[in-house]
Design brief:
single chain; 182 residues; Rossmann fold; five-stranded parallel sheet; binds flavin mononucleotide
Length: 182
């Protein structure tokens, strides 16, 4: 199983990053081939809605998303990991998913069809309902693309960078997610 982890927080060693690492390491232990991309290290401009991808089959915006798109196409499973920023995903994560629009054919069939998708999301507030928006966002995105939404780790109550290190239950759920992907 070829698993691509999309790290959507600018904080390396932050909560989403640690949970994603836990999931990827656990998948690797089960024989998965894993890779993690830090979106914040990459230049991924927002979608311009030029629709060139629909007429030409490729995105007209030339930046790092070309490489990311190839890795997404090669992956059998994609784990998206994002912090909650204002009840949604981070801007880095939103730019990434918007640019995946280029993988939709003119009839809106998707090149992501049949891939596995999983979500890791964290927020500072202790109220789990804060994560509902992000969860629905990715449930809808995975479903629209014909992906198999295999699991999620949603973790409220994490404010400081690395706070999840003491949350053994969340780390265990991340490991379980990694195992289930393989
Ligand atoms: C710009 C910004 C917006 C945020 N918005 C929310 C929010 O709406 N609700 C919330 O509970 N936490 C919010 N947070 C807190 C982060 O979700 C929280 O600190 C999280 O643990 C960060 O994850 P990371 O360590 O992976 O970067 C926000 C943080 C930032 C920087």
């Amino acid at each position: 199983m070829n698993i691509l982890g999309i790290a959507g927080s600018p904080r390396k060693g932050g909560n989403t990053d640690l949970l994603l690492t836990e999931a990827l390491n656990s998948a690797a232990q089960k024989g998965g081939k894993t890779e993690k991309l830090y979106l914040d290290d990459l230049k991924i401009r927002p979608c311009r809605a030029c629709m060139v991808c629909k007429s030409e089959g490729v995105c007209a915006v030339e930046d790092d998303m070309q490489t990311v798109t190839e890795k997404v196409k090669e992956a059998e499973a994609v784990i998206v990991a994002t912090p909650v920023y204002w009840f949604s995903c981070s801007a880095q994560t939103k730019a990434f998913v918007d640019r995946l629009f280029a993988l939709l054919a003119p009839d809106y069939s998707s090149q992501l069809q049949g891939k596995k998708g999983a979500l890791i999301a964290v927020c500072a507030q202790g109220d789990p309902s804060v994560l509902i928006g992000v969860e629905k966002l990715f449930a809808d995105i995975f479903a629209f693309n014909g992906m198999d939404y295999v699991g999620k780790v949603l973790c409220p109550g994490l404010l400081e960078q690395g706070a999840v290190k003491t949350n053994q239950e969340a780390l265990a759920r991340a490991r379980d997610l990694g195992k289930r992907l393989c």
